[in-house]
Design a protein that fits this description.
four-stranded antiparallel beta sheet, binds S-adenosylmethionine, alpha/beta, 27% strand, Rossmann fold
Length: 284
């Protein structure tokens, strides 16, 4: 979504009327819907605005969550877990805590987000790749972890492709832990969320996220974001972003992991409204 600017603080200052702004957002919508979350059409948060990611969601907020997912990874595996591959590792927030227990290899399709993660995880291996097609040659890990990035998969085919990627990289008896933001059974849009952080470098961010499901009959929903970005010189601008995400029933996740070769269980997630899907790669 790099080229899809939506409305900006500059446009507001120049006096664009509401109708003009909404027509810009409309144009943006039709492009993002038709293209989906392909490599060339990513949310701005993962491309031109990636440098703001840790001010939207800060690494230190992930400690307990990362501990919980690490425990699930170990419990689902047969034998010790030393190496973990993360698909869609984003800003490396979970990894910044999980690396205390495991040797983490981080992958994401956004080069900008890999750069953001490298800043807080310089000692870890980072690989650019799409979780639907990534194949790291001769690499098998004790576990594969897929956090909220999996929510950007918008078709059942994508979910199956991600499960195959996980199985390809997981040793026999190894585990997979998959954490979508939502499942169909407990998804209750619309809702809003706000937050943000003040950075040590003098920059600050506040955001409003508005999640809606324009067409409940399809497998996507959208989160529209307004970002207020304060630079070190005190100037503040507003940026718009749209994230198109996938919504599926529990059975779709279970089916995909089971078909890929995992013995699958469903765990309650104290950190979100959706369950966590855990699997053990069937030996032999
Ligand atoms: C919310 S961020 C993940 C943050 C991560 N949980 C953390 O701990 O920092 C979502 C990430 O998913 C990535 N992503 C989306 N679709 C992807 C795909 N098909 N393959 C790989 N990465 C993907 C985006 O580039 C983005 O970096």
């Amino acid at each position: 979504m790099t080229s899809c600017l939506g409305w900006s603080g500059q446009e507001m200052k120049q006096g664009k009327k509401g109708s003009e702004l909404s027509s810009d957002i409309e144009k943006c919508d039709s492009r993002s819907r038709s293209a989906g979350n392909t490599v060339g059409n990513r949310p701005r948060l993962y491309s031109d605005l990636a440098a703001w990611f840790h001010l939207l969601t800060a690494p230190h907020d992930y400690q307990e969550e990362a501990e919980f997912y690490s425990d699930l990874i170990v419990e689902a595996a047969i034998g010790p877990v030393r190496t973990v591959l993360e698909l869609g590792s984003g800003g490396g927030n979970n990894a910044s805590h999980m690396k205390e227990r495991f040797t983490m290899t981080l992958t994401d399709f956004s080069p900008e987000m890999l750069e953001v993660s490298r800043r807080i995880n310089p000692e870890l291996t980072h690989i650019q790749g799409d979780m639907r097609s990534l194949r790291v040659d001769h690499a098998q890990f004790d576990a594969v972890f897929v956090h909220d990035a999996v929510t950007y998969l918008t078709t059942e085919e994508d979910i199956h492709a991600m499960a195959s990627t996980a199985a390809f990289h997981c040793r026999p008896g190894g585990s997979v832990v998959v954490v979508p933001d939502h499942v169909w059974e407990s998804f209750t849009p619309p809702y809003t969320e706000n937050g943000g952080h003040d950075g040590l470098d003098g920059r600050s961010m506040r955001y409003l996220m508005w999640t809606t499901d324009p067409d409940p009959t399809d497998s996507t929903y959208v989160s529209d974001f307004a970002y207020l970005l304060r630079e070190t010189d005190g100037t503040v601008r507003v940026e718009y972003d749209r994230h198109v995400q996938g919504i599926f029933s529990k059975s779709v996740w279970i089916d995909a992991l089971t078909k890929a070769g995992f013995q699958t269980t469903v765990q309650t997630d104290p950190w979100g409204p959706a369950p966590v899907f855990c699997g053990t790669n069937r030996v032999g």
